[in-house]
Amino acid sequence: MRTTEELEETLASFPQRSPNPEELARLWHFLNTMKAAGVATTRGYDLPLPDTLGRARLETRRRST
After folding, report:
1. DSSP assignment letter at 20
2. CA–CA dist 3, 9 (Å, integer)
């Protein structure tokens, strides 16, 4: 099975809506309140870009040959 087909099947089986939208809204409000109070923070994207990964691998491969 191709990866795209597996992903499409997984997405099709995933519920499109939250089973409890009120709870989701409550949690979202709580998170925003904690962020405003400085208690909660969210991490930014800190993974290297794919180009960076590819470049390092290519340089390693060039050195070994």
Report:
1. -
2. 10
More confident residue, 60 or 39: 39
How far, in Å, CA of 8 to CA of 14, rounded?
10
Query: What is the mean predicted confidence (pLDDT) over 2-11?
Result: 86
- The count of residues in the chain is 65
How many Cα atoms within 13 Å fall on the side-chain side of residue 43? 3
Q: Cβ distance 31 to 41 under 8 Å?
A: no
Is the pTM higher than 0.90? The answer reads: no
Q: Count of alpha carbons within 13 Å of 9, Cβ hemisphere only?
A: 6
